[in-house]
Amino acid sequence: MNPADRLLGLIQQLYAAPGTAEGWLPFLESLRIALHGSSSSLLCEDLRSQQCSVAATTTLDPEAIGLYNKQWGSADPWAHSPSSGRLAQPGVIVGDELIAHRDVQRTAYYEDFARRYDVVRALIGVLEMSPTALSVISVSGSERRGPFCERDVALLGPLVPHVRRALQLHRRLVAASRAADDLSSAIDQLSRAVLLIDAEGRVTFMNRAASRLIAMRDGLTVEQGALRAASASDTMRLRSTVAEAVRTSSGFGFGAGGMLAIGRPSGRRALSLLVCPVSQRRTLFPGVETAAAMVFVADPEQIAVPDEDTLRTLFGLTRAEAKLTRLLAQGESLMEAGERLGLRRETVRSRLKAIFEKTNTHSQGELVRLVLNGTPRS
């Protein structure tokens, strides 16, 4: 199989993953096989406690998962190497670039854990990084396999933005499913608008919030079955992003969708859209045609968030810090806010750290609660 076809096949499997932990396993197993690894995993690290845990994995012994989560995650030589600061950069890193293999072999991690379970080599794709958390996709290798190489990096690299987008979709679906046993009912009850788009670019499903938003005709409408923005330029950007997502889910493209700000004729704050490819092999909602893209819409007017000048006055923030704080308070993740503002990951992290210091907060959740309450902490 040529590299392009292998990559397209992996992307197709990836967008069938969101919604359940089990859904990630076929993709992770195919990725492991493609890279000749001993296991592949989604890993999440709490940078405050320096505890690293396995969110999903394939082929790794269940005993090893338990030991890693309980004991060895905090001693992971790649996550805690002197060069681990490189994990703040987007892209793919070979474990040997963080710590030499001979140095790994000298650790208790290697002697008592890694060698026993054939996870002595690492290829790491950085998905998300904030001052408090790190999420990566990792492929492990055995001694027999030997080191990962540039060819392996070339395969995993283009997948990283798709895994990041699939995680965004996964979190929204999981949050919805917690609200009700039936996913379609849960999404229908969400306050955030959700729309499904088919392979022809037609809207095939809208939850109640989306129906109300479309009926307002203030920023988004549906005309002849297709989603349209108020301005021609926004419509062009929206349809281009949706078409990119549809091509990917149809197996003809490599785009990962994206974040968009859509202007409103009323002068109200712009709508914030997240466009994701979704698997056409999977029916998300009974009675709905197979979807090729999903669109989430956040309306900042529905959230009582102070304006930038108020945030600057209340908390002593710079204008740039206030912009980031408002987006986080409106429900966007750090990664999404960074995309909206056109910032590099390390810039977003350092800016959030400065905001935490000025507001005397220690997490995004704590910051958002403070902002919505509107009272500075002493």
Which term fits the overall shape?
globular
Radius of gyration over C-alpha positions, nearest whole angstrom: 22 Å
- The percentage helix is 40-55%
Count of alpha/pi helices: 16
Number of E strands? 12
Spatial gap, N to C terminus? 61 Å
How does this structure look, described?
- The protein is α+β, with helices and mostly antiparallel strands.
- It contains 16 helices and 12 strands.
- The strands form 3 sheets. A 5-stranded antiparallel sheet has the order 2-1-5-4-3, with helices on both faces.
- Strand 10 (258-262) and strand 11 form a beta hairpin.
- Helix 1 (3-14) packs antiparallel against helix 2 (25-34).
- The longest helix is centred in the middle third of the chain and has 18 residues, at 160-177.
- The chain is globular.
State the gist of this model:
This protein has helices at residues 3-14, 25-34, 62-72, 95-98, 101-104, 108-117, 150-156, 160-177, 183-189, 208-216, 232-249, 308-315, 319-329, 334-341, 345-359, 364-373; strands at residues 39-46, 51-58, 91-94, 121-129, 133-141, 193-197, 203-206, 220-223, 226-229, 258-262, 271-277, 293-298. The strands form 3 sheets. It has a 5-stranded antiparallel sheet, sandwiched between helices. It has a 5-stranded antiparallel sheet with strand order 7-6-12-11-10, with helices on both faces. A two-stranded antiparallel sheet has the order 8-9.
